[in-house]
Design brief:
This protein is mainly α. Helices cover 73% and strands 0% of the residues.
């Protein structure tokens, strides 16, 4: 983060930032990305639009940052001692009802991102890239423990496998993924691809 951005962001307390992020996610769930406005966020949080624009460049950056900070669990907080255990813990750490609500939000955002270059860039920079870095760290720990071969070609595709399985189920089966499906998918697809026991 640049010093300029850090200086702008220090004006809000962590509690106030959490309040703003929660309001943004609630509005996303209620109205979707296209209908969400900075005016609505300002009204919901009793903040001025000037405050919002001082902290975030615009709606795409605010939305991407809110989603990043609103996640129920961080990959960096998960370390069960095995990669298989970490992947299963990631699923267990998410509330099933919250996942169902967020799947709808993410589908809407994915659609909007392909039509809005600023949103696409903000999501990549502020949400997806940090998540991919966390996955790389998770996998590297398994390599460091000697659990996963450093030259295993599947190691670079762990996020692709997980997200791909989640995205494919509604298309192929007409059903959103649930924890039972995701645990089965990890054991049947991800674990064998990585050569884990």
């Amino acid at each position: 983060m640049s010093p300029e951005v850090a200086a702008r962001r220090t004006r809000l307390t962590p509690e106030r930032e959490r309040e703003l992020y929660t309001a943004v996610v609630e509005l996303l769930r209620e109205v979707g990305y296209e209908a969400l406005t900075m005016d609505a966020v300002a009204a919901r949080t009793r903040a001025s639009k000037a405050t919002l624009y001082r902290q975030w460049k615009g709606k795409p950056e605010l939305v991407a940052t809110a989603l990043r900070h609103h996640k129920p669990v961080s990959l960096g907080d998960i370390d069960t001692g095995s990669l298989k255990g970490d992947l299963h813990e990631l699923v267990r750490a998410h509330d099933e009802n919250e996942i169902k609500r967020d799947q709808e939000v993410m589908r809407g955002l994915a659609h909007a991102a392909f039509q809005n270059e600023d949103l696409f860039r903000a999501l990549r920079e502020l949400l997806i890239e940090p998540e991919l870095a966390s996955f790389r760290d998770l996998v590297q720990r398994a390599v460091d423990r000697g659990e996963l071969a450093a030259d295993n070609p599947a190691r670079d595709f762990v996020p692709h496998m997980l997200f791909g399985g989640a995205l494919a189920r509604p298309i192929i089966e007409g059903i959103d993924p649930d924890p039972v499906y995701t645990h089965r998918y990890i054991d049947a697809v991800v674990v064998p691809a990585l050569g884990l026991s």
